[in-house]
């Protein structure tokens, strides 16, 4: 324990942790940035700086926020900036549905059932996949999956810390990949759309715009995570010697929970069948005028559809398993889900003001145009620039753990710049997501690291932060490397990242 504490205090990770701990809460980071935009807008306005809008050709002056006009704008737009911020409605809407599925116990039961029923030969891969898809339960996945994975490994006679590592790696480093559209997709898509509006307010990035890429990612990340666990982590840990007192019992899924899960699956299949019928019905208004799906009202309204899907399966499970005793329990669970989002809502209030000020002052357009011109002048506009951006995002994640907060900082600067270089904002969003996700498990600022560390100590009292980081580092490096290769393949071969979404704005 003393060694671990010494490493934590004096090592590189300790330095990162100290720097990160000195940063203010993300809310105040955005307040400080908004103030910085105010000061810079005044300075640039005083110097007479202008920029030609790349879309309209109009010459725009930098407008000072520290002026009577700026003061009037800030006061009159404050509430509109908040309530009109695209990610807010998207995320809260989708979390109403996912919240019902989580609070009724459906997601927890599905996770336990998936791991417990997996054959021993593939249990590691099952844990990784469950971890990856666990982001449906948002941050609750960090609380549920790693301890459960450790218990599964212990029960079948394998090293519990290897199971814990697999569970934490899948949940943390694989957080952005998924088989199903989740709240993360809605959050980032909304922020990207807001940033893209600085250049073209007709562009809308939807929650499905990275789906093909993230769906493909699940396979490669799961294989890599399983191999790392079985071939590197567990052999390094050696044979586990249980020095704790008492028996560990893995809580089995009850018959009523199993029945609830079965009925929820049936309800989900019926829901999807009805949805497919509505989409492919001749003359369906869910398709576009040409009869296609890209773009279409179906894809454009995917969030309400996902919301209804999760409410449906959550209610069916809850009624069967007894976690919903009366219909009044449904809005109660929704309200509890919204309570969990309180911190996000507060953060968005400050982030929305920063982005709005950046946009209104025309500083965002000025920075985007001049940055694009600079990279063009040094002939750095291709894949190396994209990969460099992804590496930068990975490094920033070491001191800004919240993916939505980090993207709200980066998107207003980089999305307009890359759009001027003819890159689709959803493609740049994907480059950010892989970096942010890969380093989640090695940043000391991840609040769930301490939770995982506590579980580790339950099995090995000598383990510390250094132990955990050393176990996570192979996953982080491998996942990021695989994702960079996958991003390159999609880039080179022009594979769509989502429905109708390519590398460039031109298609």
UniProtKB/TrEMBL annotation:
Any one Pfam family match given in the protein's UniProt record, by short name: ABG_transport
Q: Where are the transmembrane segments?
A: 27-46, 82-101, 122-145, 211-229, 264-282, 302-320, 341-360, 380-401, 438-456, 468-495
Q: Which UniProt keywords apply?
A: Membrane, Transmembrane, Transmembrane helix
Q: Which GO terms describe its biological process?
A: p-aminobenzoyl-glutamate transmembrane transport
InterPro entries the record matches: AbgT
GO molecular function list: secondary active p-aminobenzoyl-glutamate transmembrane transporter activity
Name under which the protein is recorded: p-aminobenzoyl-glutamate transporter
* Organism of origin: Salinicoccus roseus
């Amino acid at each position: 324990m003393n060694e671990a504490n010494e490493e934590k205090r004096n090592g590189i990770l300790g330095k990162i942790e100290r720097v990160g701990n000195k940063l203010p809460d993300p809310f105040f980071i955005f307040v400080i940035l908004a103030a910085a935009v105010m000061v810079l807008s005044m300075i640039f306005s005083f110097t007479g700086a202008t920029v030609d809008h790349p879309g309209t050709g109009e010459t725009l002056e930098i407008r000072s926020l520290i002026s009577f006009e700026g003061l009037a704008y800030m006061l009159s737009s404050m509430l509109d900036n908040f309530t009109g911020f695209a990610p807010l409605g998207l995320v809260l809407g989708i979390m109403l549905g996912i919240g019902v599925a989580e609070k009724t116990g459906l997601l927890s039961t599905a996770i336990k059932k998936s791991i417990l029923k997996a054959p021993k030969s593939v249990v590691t891969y099952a844990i990784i996949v469950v971890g990856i898809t666990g982001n449906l339960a948002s941050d609750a996945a960090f609380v549920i999956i790693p301890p459960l994975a450790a218990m599964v490994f212990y029960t079948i006679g394998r090293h519990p810390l290897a199971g814990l590592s697999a569970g934490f790696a899948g949940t943390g480093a694989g957080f952005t990949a998924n088989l199903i559209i989740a709240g993360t997709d809605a959050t980032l898509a909304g922020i990207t759309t807001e940033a893209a509006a600085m250049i073209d307010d007709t562009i809308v990035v939807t929650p499905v715009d990275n789906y093909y890429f993230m769906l493909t990612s699940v396979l490669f990340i799961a294989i890599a995570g399983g191999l790392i666990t079985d071939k590197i982590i567990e052999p390094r840990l050696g044979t586990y010697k249980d020095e704790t007192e008492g028996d560990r019992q893995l809580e089995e899924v009850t018959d009523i929970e199993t029945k609830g899960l079965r009925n929820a699956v049936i309800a989900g299949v019926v829901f999807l069948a009805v949805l497919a019928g509505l989409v492919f019905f001749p003359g369906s208004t869910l398709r576009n005028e040409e009869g296609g799906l890209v773009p279409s009202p179906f894809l454009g309204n995917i969030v309400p559809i996902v919301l209804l899907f999760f409410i449906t399966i959550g209610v069916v499970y809850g009624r069967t398993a007894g976690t919903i005793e009366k219909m009044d329990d449904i809005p109660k669970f929704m309200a509890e889900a919204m309570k969990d989002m309180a911190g996000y809502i507060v953060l968005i209030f400050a982030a929305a003001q920063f982005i709005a000020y950046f946009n209104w002052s025309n500083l965002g357009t000025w920075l985007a145009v001049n940055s694009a011109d600079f990279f063009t002048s040094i002939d750095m506009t291709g894949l190396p620039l994209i990969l460099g951006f992804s590496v930068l995002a990975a490094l920033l994640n070491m001191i800004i753990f919240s993916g939505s907060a980090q993207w709200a900082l980066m998107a207003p600067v980089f999305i307009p710049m890359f759009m001027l270089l003819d890159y689709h904002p959803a493609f740049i969003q994907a480059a950010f997501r892989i970096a942010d996700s890969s380093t989640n498990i090695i940043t000391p600022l991840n609040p769930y690291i301490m939770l995982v560390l506590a579980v580790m100590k339950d099995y090995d009292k000598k383990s510390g932060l250094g132990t955990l980081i050393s176990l996570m580092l192979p996953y982080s490096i491998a996942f990021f490397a695989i994702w960079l290769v996958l991003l390159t393949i999609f880039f080179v071969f022009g594979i769509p990242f989502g429905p109708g979404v390519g590398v460039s704005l031109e298609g």
